[in-house]
Amino acid sequence: ELIVKPLHGRGNKNNEGEGSKVYCYTKPANPHDPWKLSLVSDFTHASHNFQPINWDNDPEHELLVAAKEGVWFMGRSTGEWKRRQYSDHWAGEVRDGKLPGGTRFFATIEPMHGTTAAVYTQPTGKGLWPRTVLDESLKDGHAVVVRDFLGTGSDQVVVGWRGMTPKGVPGVRLFAPLDKDGKQWRASELSGAEVAIEDLKAADLNGDGKPDLVLAGRATKNPTSTASTRPMAARIRQILNSSRCSPNVIVELWNRSSSEGRGMASFARRSGAWWAGAVWSAGCGDPAGAAEA
User: Where is pLDDT greater, at 56 or 146?
Assistant: First the structure.
């Protein structure tokens, strides 16, 4: 199935008016035939992001939808799409994870393109989920990713911001829970002005079974060079050395833009040392050789 969620409803002005229509397209046996269309929801406004989830034992996925109306759960285990409200703060980004004690949570950036990173933990009963603010200093927050980057057995939250509106220095910050209930978190800087974050993704890029972090920049066109990755590598190394875990690889990728061409740069840990190097290039000859960070 394909879920399509527009940012705004038709004819919206100032995030008001007709709600955004979220549709589910079901693929027929012959994908060239018309796909069955069903309406998931039609009431949200300024809905910037959503996350497929599967928290129960059925094969169907459900959705977490972030919007001006808050974060909503949408699912259809009984055949009809139903919804439950989990938060009432306008959220632009949403991703889910688990705390050290096993409690489920989701992380947000609030409002859309906003200043606040927050987490919501699953309550014992029904109703809105309790909110914990992680940071209120973001400038144009635009991405959040939740994965176990540090190998602790539970998830951390990574947020990124663009610094476009309002103007500011872009950045990426990792938040690690310090208790099983997610009441206290430690913040660590991963990136600064090098990349104006448009999006963040977690993926196992080198096949070692551990998640790596991918940064995508737009406004900055990701101007950097292998040499300029050294301060960022030092910050990542400091974070890893100060933690109680020992992951062997974190990789950070972005486009490299210069008068000679564009490329990709990465961080990888080899024989105990962190290395930075270009892994792809175009228009500037051979990729730059790896350099110890």
Answer: 146
Residue 244 token pair: 């109680």
The answer to whether the Cα torsion of 238, 229, 137, 68 is positive or negative is negative
Residue 270, beta-bridge partner list: 273
CA distances from 214 to 52, 76, 197, 246, 265 (A): 20, 32, 10, 20, 11
DSSP 8-class letter at 228: G
Rounded-to-integer distance, Cα 134 and Cα 117, Å? 5
Closest of 200, 226, 196, 231 to residue 215, by C-alpha: 200
Residue 242 has pLDDT above 80, yes or no: no
Q: Are 106 and 96 in contact (CB under 8 A)?
A: yes
Q: How far is CA 282 from CA 68, 255, 258, 259, in A?
A: 41, 10, 11, 12
Instruction: Fill in the DSSP letter of residue 13.
Output: B
**pLDDT confidence bin for 80, thresholds 50/70/90:** confident
147-186 pLDDT, tens digit per residue, is 999 999 999 999 999 998 888 999 999 999 999 999 999 9
Q: What is the mean pLDDT of the chain?
A: 80
Of all helices (H) and strands (E), which one includes residue 145?
strand 141-147
- pTM of whole model > 0.70? yes
**Beta-carbon count within 10 A of 215 CB:** 26
Q: Quick one: which of 152, 197, 195, 193 has its CA closest to 175? A: 152
Q: Are 160 and 200 in contact (CB under 8 A)?
A: yes
- Angle, CA 14 vertex, CA 37 and CA 109 arms, to 5°: 75
At 234 the pLDDT is 45
